[in-house]
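pinned: reference chain
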Amino acid sequence: MKPVSIIESPSNLGLAMLQPGHEPGVKKLPGWLKQFGFHKKIEPVHVTATQVPAYEGRVDKISGVRNRDQILQYMFTQENVLNEHLDAGWFPLVIGGDCSLLIGNMFALKKRGKYGVFYLDGHTDYVLPSQSTTGGAAGMDLALIAGLGHDLLTDVNNRKPYVQQKHIWCVGNREFDTAYLQPLLQSEIEYYDLHRLRKVSIVRCIDSFLQMVSEENLDGFWIHFDVDVLNNDIMPAVDSPAPDGLTYTELKEILLPLLQHPKATGMQITILDPELDESGKYTKPFAENVTEILKTAMN
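pinned: its structure tokens
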């Protein structure tokens, strides 16, 4: 594994307000994890703190996406910073923030070559703006990077799609509403909900993804890790909690072979909201487990 760098991306632009007049607290995650020794334990070669445009909350009438102008502006910031880290030969660990960070990260990677995505999330986030009830890009990010949605976000600088559907593995979903799943099931995305993942086995899921990376001769792949994929008993500090989810043992079984693969390009961690875990009861074991996985992958 390449030397790990950290990009702090405290964006909450992809979420609607949980309470009127109060921004989502996920933007506090980088500083929150640092309090629990996350950065120190990883010993990154470099840390970059990015500046995120101010949260406005307005839903754009053309694209149907909340904070569209700000997300678009931040995409270019993400591209510049990510390029700096990749050009230096580092493995960027992006600490969010919400899932909409994926849009800017994959926008950046599209210009560099042909990349895949391992999308580890308790939701598919494969929703069109017209289907969304909140207008939040965090619930549409997988669809947006695959080219679904208005060109204002999906075809910036003529790069549509940022990732081909056949190069995406969507893993860990446990939202089984039929209408919600329909767009994904009609796509070319390889889909492992939580039940299928456990039935088929984690090993076979990872092997199939890495085989695709090799057969498609990808330049690399990006790991999206939304903490709501974890079991609600060990990580309830998220905006859309749901029963069941992965254990830390299962998380390790998933992440280790991905992180240790030579085509692993970077990873983002999203959605843990410090305001929903003020005592740190759930954040402390999270930091301990994830840093241990990263340290093992680096050795």
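why pinned: Residues 4-298 form a domain with the Arginase; Chain A fold (CATH 3.40.800.10). The chain has a mean pLDDT of 97.
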